[in-house]
Write a structure and sequence with these properties.
Number of domains: 3
Number of helices: 24
Strand content: 15-25%
CATH topology of the largest domain: ADP-ribosylglycohydrolase fold
Largest sheet: 7 strands, antiparallel
CATH architecture of the largest domain: Orthogonal Bundle
Shape: globular
CATH superfamily of the largest domain: ADP-ribosylation/Crystallin J1
Helix content: 25-40%
Number of strands: 25
Radius of gyration: 30 Å
CATH class of the largest domain: Mainly Alpha
Length: about 850
Amino acid sequence: MTSAALAMGPGSGRCRFTTTICVGCLEAMGPSALWGAPKERAARFAQEYNPRRADSAPPGGADMAILEITREEYLDRAAGGWLGRMAGATLGIPFEGSRELRTVAYYDPVPGQPVASDGLDCQLLWLRLLREHGPDLSWRQMTDAYERHLAYHWDEYAWTRHNLRRGLEPPLSGSFDNWFRTADRAITRAEVWAMTAPGCPQVAAAHAHRDASIDHADDGVWAAMFWAAMESAAFFVSDVRQLLEIGLAMVPSGSRAARAARIVRDAWIGGQPLTEARARVLTAVGHENYSDAPQNLGMALIGFLYGTGFGSSLATAVNLGLDTDGTAGAVGGLLGILHGRSALPREWIDPLGEAVVIGWGLLDLEPERTVAELASHTLEAAEGVLAALCPQVAIVEQTSREEQAASPVARPAPPPPAGSPEAIVPQEAGPVPGTDAIHSQPPPGSDRARFVEIDPLPPVPAAAAAPAPGSAATQEVEAMAAQNGTPAEAMPVSGAAGPPQTSVDASEVPAPDDTPAPAAQGETSAVPVPEAVPVPAVSVAASPAVDWTDNSRVRPLWAVPANSSTLYAGQFEITADYGPGGPVLVPNAASSFTVAVRNKAPDPFVGHVRLEVPAGWQVAVPGAQGQRQMLAAGGMARFGFVIRVPDSAPLAQRNSATLILAPEAGPAVTAAIPFFGGFCWWVVGPFRNLADEGYTRAYGPEDRVDLSADYVARDGGLIRWQRMAFPGVVMDLEPVFNGSPGVLYALALFRADHAGPARIVAHCNDGVRVWLAGRMVIQRHSHEPFRPTLGCGPASADVELRAGDNPVLVKVVRCGEPVRFALSLTDRDGQPLQGVGSTRW
């Protein structure tokens, strides 16, 4: 790091001491850095351009494309998106977490209303914020609402709420000590960002990034951006391969989410069966957490691409397993936006009714009560987002067909989906030839029989040339046309690759027959199966004026450090970037971090910047950062520090350093930078675990803990206690076992400020025993999936802590699989205890 801080004006986008872009610098670049025209330009655009006037042109030239959608069509698509999400979640919720292949085809039992969903609850909350505060939502507004209105306590919700309560702001709130950081919860709330930014995939992706970063990081964020971008584009783009490319353009190409999407895309184009696509996704990006985002993104895309109708696509996603309500809900939301409520099969939508059902975890919020009201409020929020951030898109009143045709981008509506609820089940996996009623299938005749992971799209075999007039093929077409009363030019040509491509008007597409098929004699049909209606394919001409895969305003988001947190003090916005290690301090280990300071005041700052730390701590300031600093109005400077806590210095579970900005004239401004003491353990092992005897066999540490003692190891050598530190409650103990079965012991002193009730929760995919102050409180040997939910689990015990030191001894047994282990102390309600930690050896 260099010696002096660099003051920069807004919009530079560059920071010292790092190759990434910090949150503060990104904000300083203004709205145009993320999603295009600022509000002033949007207002001028609205004043100067009237899309109905022939003599009116968009400001900035003809290259600024205008996309139009009528209010009626928007409301239909918004209602379709919400109902599609509800239908998929309702179908998938009974099978959530299952890794088995299934043959689900329809609701069982048939519901009277949709299931409650935490993903929908979050979207209702975000929609309320958009309507109350407008499109420029801040993380502070969102996290305040997150804490006040959401009471869900599992998985990433619990860890994020814990981080927010101890002063960590996004994106650090989603990345630090959160085992579920790459889970798929943010995908389940992507519709609100897509439907409030129709035709603006970059805006939808940016808003999804802001949302997902509250309780996720990395692929948990990228997958949400991918899906939100696809759904946003689906208002105007019906070509599924183009939708895939739009989603891929909005996420880092090296991410696991992008890899999963490319695998499914290539398998589908190559004509591989869906079971093969599923296997390739799990091989490439599979995770022990069933709700991990990349693998579930892959399952959702398989359902979307391989399904042959609305119900088929939902059921296919469910039949693939994992987070089934999330994947099927995502597919339903996308298809609902693509086709609108009016085109969705009634046998899938009617059983849900009109009510919006909320879950128990949405508190103190009066949500929309009906789907119609929800769609109307979504339209209200969308108009605000478009006016401020997307002036190239307009929601207009119903216009004549001639006026629509004169628009720069005329978008034919996609055909309605087939009504068949039959799913493609794994036993009958494989691409369906031709074009189904929802979206195109892989091109027939494709010779991509093997998996090739490439980006962008592989070449598609060219269609065969039309036969010459008078040829045998032409005569055959003319004869078929005469027999069916169809113009010859609309008939498919024998030998051509792919389905017939015929441009049709939405009003000419026959509606699906929603009448249930009669049951066979002697049978009872609980599932209505309507007769399939053949629908011609739609050819949608892509507008050269719209670059749907432009990601210039989203790419800066990829560089925002996940381990950073933004604070506000006086006129300053302060972003602390803790680096890969996060805000964790361990005795005698040096930790470096940087602070970006942005001056939001209209006047420049001239003064000194320094860092104060608790007594006994050591702080190093590289170079001459303590010298006189000048920060222009709107400018930014970045400072680097190194902190070390000696053994003799105090280190609590929660600590803070104080950043002081002292102007030459006027009072100083201070900001507390939070730090946390790591978890310090003594570990000894591995001992022998022959034929799984290690769980019941008592080794030396069980009889008497002596940190200076020697023990006989698994291989016959001698082992001793060693120090190990962990940043959070999840402890990586596998290196001690070195890939083989064994037993280890770990000891920590948890210091409590006060005596009181507590709960010890141990999560392990193998055998575990826990002693508190010499008394065994937990014992469990079960080879079960590792899922470290905060405050609850199958291996837990309610205990009493005493003031001062509370020794906790843990025995971990590893059999055949790599061991996973986590241990946490919470109160009896499952909330982390304050003032309790093992920050010293």
